[in-house]
Each structure stands twice: as structure tokens, then as C-alpha cells.
Amino acid sequence: MDTYYLMQVINGLSVGMIYALIAIGFTLIFGVLNVVNFAHGEMYTLGAFAGLVCINAFGSPLAIVILVALAGGAIAGIGLERIAFKPFRRFQDEASLKSRAMREATLLSSLAVSIIIKELIQHFFGAEMQTIPGQYLLNNPIPVGPLSLSSGQFLILGSSILMLGGLQYVLYHTRTGLSIRAISNNPLGAKYVGLSVDKTIIATFAVGSMLGGAAGIMVGLYYGAIFPSMGFAPSIKAFVAMVMGGLSSIPGAVICALILGVCEALATNYLTQGWSDMVAYSFLIITLIFFPQGIFGARRERV
């Protein structure tokens, strides 16, 4: 493969990993609540700003900055669940859980919280871009044979793989993960056998928002700037990846996010940067027409 195209593929995989971390949060929350969290992009933004505050206030090492972004995402996710989703779970009967009106109300609630969070960030930090101090930037070139990669790409790829591996361990080797999978499969059945649905939903929001927050700070460290609306475009791409993957399939969402990232990177060879964003929307239309259950959509597992 030509060196230039190989570099574009690697760039696409880095971007795709960011989409994947955000898409996992969408997928986890949709799995347990059967609703789309339209405020999930703001968890990405809040993680980035939490890391920036840690840098400016304390000058903390890079590892601490990422941990703070993870913690900030988790706290923001729990707060989001308490404000935007908890009030609509007062009724736990089957009719309420399957109510279309309830899902639409929750969707609008998350959208309203998303707008409020964005406005609050603009109020406290301003609408302009916030720059990351130069010593924290992850754009040092690292030669790998004929390729010239950056330290940020290694951080994004390596950290994403570690987080995805940790998530798989949590889902398949811990009681919390078993509860998440059980409630995703059958909320009422899980409640009747004694699982705490409320605590599991809180844990789901915390885990999904942690991944989003980590993605936000890594992108900020790589590109050198963050801003209040930075979560909009990546969250749209992540949502497309979730739909392509089958809504509740984590491996499907990850694979589709990587496909989106690589296709977008390669599309810049033939389209301008703005038009390359059409790749995700084209994939969404094709998926809805030819794969209405998602490319990796399948029946839910029995837990």
C-alpha cells in the first residue's frame, strides 16, 4: 500500500476509535433504557473541559489529567441520569417501559439538558476555543519505518484498546456487567429476580460517560484546543455507528465506528473536508434502507 494511503488509514483508525468510545456510551444506554441519550456528546465536552481545568489549575501530569477526565465524565453521567432520565422511571410496569410517549419525553429531556450544559460551558469558559498548554500537546512525530506517526495517535489507539478491553472484562466478568446485560435483555425479568435496576442504570451512565470524557480530553490534547460545541459532530458520527452496528451491539458499534473513521479519512483524498462529513450520513441512509436492523443486528442474548 502507498505510504500516503497507509497514513490515511492510520489517521482514520485513530478518529474511528474516538467515535467508538462515544458510540459505546450510546449503545450501553440504549440497551438498558431503550432510548437515545442526546446529551451524550456533552459528556465528551465536559471530560475535555475537566482535563483543561486540571491542567490550568494544578499542572498535573498527563496520566492524572486523563483520570480527571474519566472521573468528570462519570460524575456528569450520573448527574445527567438523575436529572434527565430518573424522573421518567417512576412507573416500572411493562406498559410504561414500552410507552412511545415515555421514550419521546426522555429523548426531549436529554436534548434540553444538552442545551443547558452547552450554555453553561459557554457562560463560564466563553464561546471561543480554549487552547491546551504546549507542553501537554501530543503531536510529537514518531518515525515508524517509512511512516511518521504522532504521540497522540499512539495515545488514542493504545488507551482506546485498553478501555475497550476493560469494558469487555466488566461486562462479562463482573456482577455489574452481568446486571447491565440482563437488564438490556429483559428489564422486568431482571427486576423480578432481584437485580437493582436503578443502581445498574446509574453504573451504565457512569461507564458510558467515562469513555466519552476520556475521548474528549484525548482529542483536545491531540488537536490543541477545545470548545463548548466540540461534542456535536463526533456524537453524530458515533450515533451513526451505533445505528449501523445494530443499536445494542457493542462490537458492532466499534467495528462500524472504525469503518466510518477510515472511510472519512480516505474520502478527504477526493472531497473537501466539509464534504467528507457526508460519508457518515451516506452510510446511515444505506443502513436504514438495506439493513434496518443494523449490519450487526441480531436477537438479544439470553443472560
UniProtKB/TrEMBL annotation:
Signal peptide: none
UniProt KW Transmembrane keyword: yes
Organism lineage string: Bacteria, Pseudomonadati, Thermodesulfobacteriota, Desulfovibrionia, Desulfovibrionales
Superkingdom, taxonomy of origin: Bacteria
Membrane topology term: Multi-pass membrane protein
GO biological process: D-alanine transmembrane transport; L-alanine transport; L-isoleucine import across plasma membrane
Molecular function terms, GO-annotated: L-isoleucine transmembrane transporter activity; L-leucine transmembrane transporter activity; L-phenylalanine transmembrane transporter activity; L-valine transmembrane transporter activity
Keyword ATP-binding part of the UniProt annotation: no
Any one cellular-component term (Gene Ontology): plasma membrane
Transmembrane segments: 12-36, 48-80, 154-172, 201-226, 238-267, 279-298
Source organism of this protein record: Pseudodesulfovibrio cashew
Classification via Pfam families: BPD_transp_2
Keywords: Amino-acid transport, Cell inner membrane, Cell membrane, Membrane, Transmembrane, Transmembrane helix, Transport
Protein name in UniProt: Branched-chain amino acid ABC transporter permease
PANTHER family, alphabetized: BRANCHED-CHAIN AMINO ACID TRANSPORT SYSTEM PERMEASE PROTEIN LIVH, HIGH-AFFINITY BRANCHED-CHAIN AMINO ACID TRANSPORT SYSTEM PERMEASE PROTEIN LIVH
Family: Belongs to the binding-protein-dependent transport system permease family. LivHM subfamily.
Intracellular or extracellular location(s): Cell membrane
